[in-house]
């Protein structure tokens, strides 16, 4: 079924289906769809080896627009469906398409448990900080005080920090990107694909109908330099076109003007350093710090869930199952009635 | 030498009762196994407390094991006991009502001291051993702890370990009383404690001491013999329902040559299926203990989508959580086996007690028009065949199948005439793995049974999308078209109804269409109803009996069988569920025999209800 030696080439165009894309005009989901369609042909796999599994929400319509295998499941459960598939079909490239309501609210349990088990799959978390499909209620990533249909005088729910949550759940790959930056997105999806283990990519996605501009502070060209920090492995943390940077005073990050410090004193990003990753995930509530984008943490140490389970099965595999089963049935004391 | 006379009996119902730490289950299982190996027909009924370790000596802490062994075919663990072994006052208080007048009562007199009486909430003055309330029974008081400690003295065990051997002492005594050898249990103890020889030998010493106690003392004047039963020829083993369910699923996986994927979450009384299947990964068994019930069933759906046999196991409360996912599998038209090992409900209910109150949940407990196949096992060993068939139907008809069992048959054991895999029907799944025609794959194109062909992800040229939204027939594209929705609802219903074409026709277990009255049952009540009916027939009362294993769809001829009867009874361990189906579908004024006490039917209860209805 898997034709690894006989890869059938395909293009982004080949990934389009005959289904009309029905997201609202101007929705950030279009950019994500385009970026995923752009990188898939570059991964050296045949189209039939990709599976996209989604839950419920605007983003979860995604599989219908990809001419690969796809399953649109139920609210919050995509990661569970994907786990069952990946365990039994470990050679497939499995992608979970989900949103902030889907994975952080109704599917929160599956989200954290999937991350800790680490099956080799990619979770694209479309975070628009709102319930779009149900027409505009606050979500578990909406900010306190948010005015929505279900919080007319302001939400009193404190939001999740999705990447800190993921790191706390022992995720082995966490990254953040934004719908407005196609090149960065594509790089993150490639990195996610090549990471062996569960890769979580949080995508800041604009809902132009119910939460327009939620991430404009990070995506707008004029504000971006001061608010977004693009991470590069082994490179110092710099933003504002190199004018500002971050140093570590012990474990405490501090903002500095680069002219005031030696370049050697700056916080150097190390994707493999969990302590540093934790600090970066905390650039979230404190407004003075820029929001980090890029791969925040990768661990290559942990075996994948699918490898571990299949190893148990393969290492104990019985050659003649029918014969062994017969022995199993008769293994307990049995007796003959003559 | 023993001069005891031997009295032959047709059958014996014995109940061991003690504290949940007394090893009552092990003792009962050993006696059951030894008798089965001897050739008796047997049926067992373990009765656990809900708490793992309720306070020692209290009523909630009482654990029981009931065994019926006979020289005749046995269908139930028996109504009343011929023998009660009570290891403390609480055990006696809980069980004495079920002991037949004139029955043998063996008590550990040390379990009736002030403390034990207080824990059992019995006034000192009301001590049953001295107040005369046991006069109707043959009472044998034994200082069990003291005698056991004496027997194991050479092994210099600690106080607790020494006392723990008392179940073997009493088992030895029962072996003597029923004229059975102790070799099987000696072999068991040697195996069980192979890493601790001292404990093994101490238990063996206690077992022997108990045996010789019967032999040498004058306490019993007679001993008993139950001859081997004249059952069908062949090779037998003892099996309980959960084991049989696990073996049925495993056998189906081997026969279908597909991996078995169990996505599940621990719950009483279903967890033993997970435990059993987890031992057998080498057969290509994926056992996935999920974070919750929902993840368990959803992972099973994912595995099913990937071409494995997706199975989820649970009990009522867990099934409630899985209902949305079962609806998804219905829409996806993927195979899925859902095992519901029912227990007393609603909510947490009675986790360790039995009930058949999830039938309507199985049939209707989902949003929308969502029919699935529902089948029910009727005895511990029948779980093997029914679980196997659940897989077969799911794969061949691309539908979810709910397999119903319950705590009574899940934990109860009986001899099983072993069914070799090659005697089971073949399983022919509906997969296509390559695009031979090179035409566009239509995921909802159907065969003559309305079954769709499933393309497994990874297959070249068969890329497609499926999901929980209503879909257009044939293409599988999302469709909100009103007429298409109605068509799809009817197709899904018809597809399930068409399963009946492949099912065996219903037959009478007893009697026929000319009998005066018909009794209908389903699931675990088979033994009690069948025994009751055959006893009534022996008494000259003409009763017909139907026992339903396939509940949705019902066998095609069920209406035909029911139609001639004016008097119809439906016996169920619930407040009346199957009866609604019979009344609604066949317009018959059926009457219910219902019991909702967390306990199985007694034969006498069924008999009396039938007599009353005549």
| Poorly predicted sequence stretches spanning 5 or more consecutive residues of chain A | none
The appropriate CATH architecture of the domain at 13-219 and 303-312 in chain A is: 3-Layer(aba) Sandwich
* CATH-defined superfamily of the domain at 13-219 and 303-312 in chain A: Thiamin diphosphate (ThDP)-binding fold, Pyr/PP domains
What is the number of helical segments of chain B per DSSP (H or I, 4+ residues)? 20
Furnish the topology, listing elements before pairings.
The complex is a heterodimer of chains A (338) and B (614).
Chain A: H1 29-39, E1 50-54, E2 69-72, H2 78-88, E3 93-99, H3 100-106, H4 108-117, E4 122-127, H5 162-168, E5 173-178, H6 182-194, E6 199-204, H7 216-219, H8 224-227, E7 228-230, E8 238-239, E9 244-249, E10 252-257, H9 274-281, E11 291-298, H10 305-315, H11 321-329, E12 334-337
Chain B: E1 5-9, E2 11-19, H1 24-38, E3 41-47, E4 62-70, E5 81-86, H2 89-95, E6 99-108, H3 114-119, E7 138-142, H4 144-152, H5 159-163, H6 166-177, H7 183-192, H8 197-216, E8 222-226, E9 234-240, H9 241-256, E10 260-264, H10 271-278, E11 285-289, H11 293-305, E12 309-314, H12 316-332, E13 336-342, H13 359-364, E14 373-376, H14 382-397, E15 400-406, H15 407-411, E16 413-417, E17 431-432, E18 454-455, E19 465-467, H16 482-497, E20 508-510, E21 517-522, H17 526-538, E22 543-548, E23 550-552, H18 558-562, E24 568-572, H19 578-586, E25 591-594, H20 603-613
Parallel strand pairs in B: 1-8, 2-5, 5-6, 6-7, 10-11, 10-12, 12-13, 13-15, 14-15, 17-18, 21-22, 21-24, 24-25
Antiparallel strand pairs in B: 2-4, 3-4, 9-16, 14-23, 20-22
Helix pairs in contact in B: 1-6, 4-8, 6-8, 7-8, 9-10, 9-14, 11-12, 17-20
